[in-house]
Specification:
344 residues, single chain, 7-stranded mixed beta sheet, 19% strand, 6-stranded mixed beta sheet, 12 helices, 13 strands
Amino acid sequence: MVTIKDIAKAANVSAMTVSNVLHGRTKKVSKETRERIERLMEEMQYVPNMGARMLVQNHSRIIGVIANAISDEGGETLYGPLVMEMLGEIEKEVKDHGYYMMFSASSSEKEICDMIRTWNVDGILTIGLPTEVCRHLGEEVRMPAVFTDCYFGEEEQYLNVGTEDEEGSYIAAEYLIQKGHRKIAYVTDGPYDENGNPTGVSLWKLKGFQRAVKEAYLPFAKEHVYRGSTKEEEQRKMLQSLASHIFDYTAVVFCRDYYAIEAMDYFRHHGIWIPKDISVVGFDDISMAKMAYPRLTTVRQGVREKGRKAAELLFQALEDKELKKADIRMPVKLVERETVKEIY
């Protein structure tokens, strides 16, 4: 294994000089020497000893990322392409800043809090955890933490990157109304409260849909809202119910692209054609949306941009210890493809 001393000997400098370059302390090192040492590190395939670096620097240079896992009969699993797309952008930013990423997925609040207590990380970033869980995490952790898709109170001091969720569902419904649709169903998502109503992001998306319908003086009833679920059996029952009532509507707005694409496949296998029999609009614009058949009309929320922004905010917080509160909402945009027909 190549050591710092080997690099120093090859570069004809002291081991301390090599150590300074390795740890970014290059004010007293000439550009020529630094470049020579960096070139030799690459040529000799030098791998830093992370344990030693952690001791020297007094921090781990590790970012802990926690995503929401879905618990079902088959156990826990990481759910949905949206999470994976965000995770990819976060990982890029972490690497670019010279850090490493530690990742875990869980649906248990206790398990998440226990993990945080034992992790030796410099910062925390969450993906898709409910607001209440993130609130408890914020009370637990003593290092910078950035949450995504939470709805905290005005007085709460947290860093959060979300989406203009209400506006997104509003423009989805408004688009269908402009295309002549008057009978529109909506598929929402959990978590649900004790009365079966959606909470957090899902609540704000539903509010946007309701606002558009109300402004157009269209009838709205609870039976027009179908409860989506990440649990396979519950989702199957919801799709059965929606399909059995499908000709009561001319269009459906889905709170997630994944739900929309899943429903499109279900409809196709049950003789319901899109957009001939029913128009469909999703929300997210995940990569699968433009590969679906037909290609999905949806609301783009900038999934990758949100992941990148969350990571950037975390590194900003690591540099600026006074940064305690921020609530960034990423803009939304309708992406018109092939799943909506105009009604004359």
